[in-house]
Amino acid sequence: MMPAHETYDVVVIGAGAGGMTAAAVAAAEGLRVLVIEKTAFVGGTTAWSGGVVWIPANAKMKEAGLSDSITDAVQYLSSTVPEPANAGLRAAFLARGPEAVAWLEANTEVRLQPVKVCPDYYPERLGATSGGRVLEPVAFDGTRLGRALARLRPPLPEFTLFGGMMVNRLDIPHLRRIGKSLRSTLRAARLVSEYALQRLRSPRGTTLHLGNALAARLYASLLARQVEILFSADVEDLSMQGDRVAGVAIRHGARDRLIAARRGVVLATGGFSHDATLRKRFFPAAAGFISATNTAGTGDGLRLAVTAGAAFNTEATSPAYWVPASLFRRADGSRGVFPHTVTDRAKPGVIAVNAAGRRFVNEALSYHEFVLAMLRDGNGEPDRPFYLICDRAFLWAYGLGRIKPFTRSLRRYLTSGELVDAPDVAQLAAKLGIKPSTLAATVAAYNADAKEGRDPEFGRGSTIYQRHLGDAVHKPNPCVAPIVRAPFFAMRIYPADLGTAIGMKVDAQARVLREDDTPIAGLYACGNDMGSIMNGNYPGPGITLGPALTFGYIAGRHLAEGGAFAAGKAAASAHI
Fold this sequence. Notes:
Layout: E1 6-13, H1 17-28, E2 33-36, E3 53-54, H2 59-63, H3 70-80, H4 87-107, E4 112-114, E5 134-137, E6 140-141, H5 171-176, H6 182-201, E7 207-208, H7 210-224, E8 228-230, E9 233-241, E10 244-252, E11 255-267, H8 276-282, H9 300-307, E12 312-313, E13 320-329, E14 335-339, E15 350-353, H10 367-378, E16 386-391, H11 392-398, H12 411-416, E17 420-422, H13 425-432, H14 436-450, H15 464-469, E18 488-500, E19 503-504, E20 511-513, E21 519-525, H16 545-560, H17 569-572
Parallel strand pairs: 1-2, 1-11, 2-8, 11-21
Antiparallel strand pairs: 3-5, 4-5, 6-7, 9-10, 10-11, 12-19, 13-14, 13-18, 15-16, 16-18, 17-18, 20-21
Helix pairs in contact: 1-7, 1-16, 4-16, 13-14
């Protein structure tokens, strides 16, 4: 155990993607780094996520034969993030994002690869691309972490198979074609066999994908550079030397400890998704209190920064990044939140309806836009219900929420009320408290055109992004099919957040700013502790992790270059 008054060059608070990036960069540059994590795991919400990183004009696009330019990215963002606020930060992100990726790959264990087909969320806008701006982590062998694998936050169980087997996005179509394609069946058999062998040696699958792989790669980077990580510790205060942040006061177990930071402190605690006071202050009432993020994100970094004189960046069109979510109870009694991102809403044969039983949105829009439509339709009512409606054929082929495709027994989902069924649409409406004739008319109107693959009401399947999320083998429209095969099913969905967009004001060096825009010496922020450079807009997949890695990298480099305060000699003699 470290003695009290231990001194480091850099102290990072939070072990999510942004914090671990800052720590890995500073350590790779030769600084002595301590990471303080309030939970027992590294990874934060990143470990649960898809792990994709949005970095326009990255070098890997060119290597894959895909074209992009900063000019195109600027043009795209000018329409999807039209507000002038934080324009300087977006410019810094575009300029240094590719640099961050190249540096991390050259100096850490981070490895990324381009997703060649992964459209921006508004592909009809000028400057949009159909793929390549999105980078995903290369699969990682968890056994490389050794015993430290136990400190990596496990993925959500609802996104694994057989109690811990992770699959990547390319495996999913093969799993859906088991028994229909010899190639897919053999591939699935190989995946399951490999997983079975892994479980003989480990309590979980060790072939890591998605956000779990990204978190693991960052964690491996810290371990390789002897970065110390203090788990289950709470930072109670920032220690000031004059107007400069010089360290932190923490509670670890029953002990209060003071830790000095010669060059600076990085705040990366994950935003305030689980803080009721801040949610009530910034979120619309109709958003309620549901979050798909890690529960440790309770605004710790923001409160610490305010004590040092920091200013909030509240110039956001939306205070959070949104996702529709369904709720359920796990076997251990804990509440589960399933984010309906890309697995079901855009597939052919499902619609979303409001409390009146009417469609209110193009179901294949991005999850952020989908919830914005929910909030508009909700008229400020936090408990206004919304439902996904489908039939037996859809549920079997695509699943719904946490219910996986080809699920034979639905009893536990029906018994718990997570899923509602009925032999016809009118009876389903009655169970939901919706006027039966209204829901029946809604489904009938949708079906009339869906038989021909059309959706004249909302234009579902009209863009390459929407079609990308549909079922490519379903013709003529991968996003549209009628709802006709009894029984019929409903699942309630709620507005939920994937992370907060309001955070600290920072400059292009990731330094936290005061109200007068002067930097607080020795204090940096990244990830969701930093205000959204997109002003709460959501231009494409990975626009939270892209800036998190980029500004984590910027903070680490600036600290390594001695930019936290002049000369650095004064820092060496600093004490708390």
